[in-house]
Amino acid sequence: MKIYLNKLVLRLKQSEEVIEFSDTSYFYGKMGAGKTSIARLIDYCFGGDFEYSPALQQEFVSVNLFLSVNDNKLTLLRPRDASSVIASYSIDKENYKLVVPIDAGEEVIPNSGIENLSDFLFYMSGMIPPKVRRSKIKENSDLQRLSIRNLLWYCYLDQDEIDSDFFHLGSSANNWKRLASRDVLRFIIGFHQEKVSELEEVLTDLRDKRRSLNTAASTLRDVLNESSINSYEDIHNEIESLKLKETELVDVVKGLKSKIKKTENKHAVDNLKNDARAIFYEIESLDLAIRDVKELIARDSRHLNEIQMLKLKVKRDSSARLALLSVSYASCPSCFRSLPERPSGTCVVCGQEDCCEGDPGDNSEILDKDADSRIKELSAAVKDHKEQVSKLERKKNEYVRRKSDIDERLTKLLSEYDSVYLSTVLDTETKLISIKEKIDGLRKLQELPTKVNLLQSEASALTPEIKERNEELKKVREQAEKDTKNLDKLEHIFLEMLLRSNFPGIKQDDLVSIKSPDFLPDVLDSRIGDLAVTSFANLSSGGKKTIYKSCFALAVHCLAKSTKNTVLPSLLIIDSPMKNISERENREVFEGFINLIYELAAEELDGTQIIVIDKEYFPPPEEYVKSHKSRHMQPDSKEFPPLIPYYKGH
């Protein structure tokens, strides 16, 4: 799987940091500068879990990984604590955007089989996800996809596990991880060759098909057993028996209906129904009349109130005028200035001719009499309307009572009237409908016994083919296991990696032994054989363990490259290979291992991107032809800024 990382964009609360990568990238410096977080953020974008450092706990928002997969541009955006990534990618110059879950879910692209990030990365690389048996013990075990996360165990050597765990292959590892790690090596070594994978796929399809046929046959058989039916003849006989009952019931219903028609006369129920209908219309008419009269009462009451208010206002106006006539004005009531002399017969205030001669109460008395007369008329009208409403409501209540009596009598008569019909015709027709439904259901079931036998025959017919394919698979698998050419090659490459890295105690004539199924590499002394074995488990030095594990990862990548095995991603991240080694005291090992990295990047692993994270920096030789980037990182340094330049915590 051709993967190339271009850059990592880390979005923080106060800044956005860009980390660029090259063919070989080297990050080094003091602890606490965020070097390891770079590798973990890359792994986080590939669906890994992420343990936040104190700085990232406070500042981390999201991370964007820009990369290419099989020369197709891809961006993976994963926000903080997200269970999915947002993938932006281009294929054949077409741009797409997709939300991809980390773990399996529903298909994110219809009919593509892509259910999670692992499937999506295989899709981008143009590969079908490799499949392995779920159980390594049962030959008939179903197949499951090998995840990109399993492959990344051999592409990302985490600082925490580089000296404590050998790719989950050891006896102390989680059993599921140990089996998955072995599957990865089987694919790389070639034990899972195309013929094996093809036969496993065919066998899985055949077993699924047989299982589906047997399940369908069993379900149909249960349905038939519940109906007490065993064969086509049983159903046919049952249908004929029901048809005879159906004919008998049809004749019974016809006879009953004919008898009822002959004796049918005008019934009291019909008269009561007509009476009830007429009373209903009368009640409805009375409701309408009551509503109209109440509207008249409301209208007259409003007029009555308005006249009474006007009468009160006139009385108040007359009283005010009488009071003001007795006032002698010496000054203006508005501005309080002295009034000028006025001619006789004019108003002393405004100077106009006096128009208020006579008693101002004369007109108010006339208006008062008119208002009383109108109030009397409206009061009488309201009273009459209320009496009319009372009469109408009494009449309505009488009709309601009569209708209630009729309804009660009608219910009783209907019960008596329908009892005979309901107990005979309706009951018979119900039985008739039930029989017809049973006949229809049995006709649908009529072909089921034959269908059951057909399904069982088809399932049985698959058994010989499954047996034949299973035998063929055993032979092919045994042949693949016996073909140790690539396994021998891995042993040779691993020994070469140890020698070229100046691994302490390893000699040119030593032997490496890697045996299936555990694939744990042992180094044997050529002089005394297996009496002195060097393995990851018995290396007493943590420094030796990191180099030992790193050399094996390099050997696996070299084997995959030499055999043109495309399942392994072309990416290798080694976090702190000198974790437990002093660059000054063990200078030879330090320089030997880093020189090995540069040599492999330029030759055997040309095309594989390598990222090294460590305490000290060892530059590539002058003749190094691959692109190379290095970054020195120190906490609280402006010259060599850490991953989060502005962070001042500890």
Explain this structure to me?
Residues 17-265 form the Rad50/SbcC-type AAA domain. Helices cover 52% and strands 15% of the residues. It is of the alpha/beta class and 650 residues long. It has two domains: 3-190 and 483-633, Rossmann fold; 268-321 and 360-438, Orthogonal Bundle (Helix Hairpins). The strands form four sheets. It has a six-stranded antiparallel sheet with strand order 2-1-4-5-6-7. α6 runs antiparallel to α10 (448-482), α7 (232-262) crosses α9 and α8 (268-325) packs antiparallel against α9. The model has no long low-confidence stretch (mean pLDDT 83).
Topology, element by element:
Blueprint: E1 3-12, E2 16-20, E3 24-29, H1 35-45, H2 54-59, E4 60-69, E5 72-79, E6 84-91, E7 94-101, H3 117-124, E8 131-133, E9 143-145, H4 148-151, E10 156-157, H5 175-189, H6 194-226, H7 232-262, H8 268-325, H9 361-445, H10 448-482, H11 485-500, E11 511-514, E12 521-525, E13 529-534, H12 542-562, E14 571-575, H13 587-602, E15 609-614, E16 628-633
Parallel strand pairs: 3-15, 3-16, 10-14, 14-15
Antiparallel strand pairs: 1-2, 1-4, 4-5, 5-6, 6-7, 8-9, 11-12, 12-13
Q: Compute the separation of the termini in Å.
A: 39 Å
Total domains, how many?
2
CATH topology of the largest domain: the name is: Rossmann fold
CATH C-level label of the largest domain: Alpha Beta
Encode the helix/strand succession as letters. EEEHHEEEEHEEHEHHHHHHHEEEHEHEE
Count, helices: 13
Low-confidence stretches: none
Q: Largest sheet, if any?
A: 6 strands, antiparallel
Mean pLDDT: 83
Q: Order of strands in the sheet with the most strands?
A: 2-1-4-5-6-7
CATH architecture descriptor name of the largest domain: 3-Layer(aba) Sandwich
- What portion of residues is helical? 40-55%
The CATH H-level homologous superfamily of the largest domain: P-loop containing nucleotide triphosphate hydrolases
**Main structural class:** alpha/beta
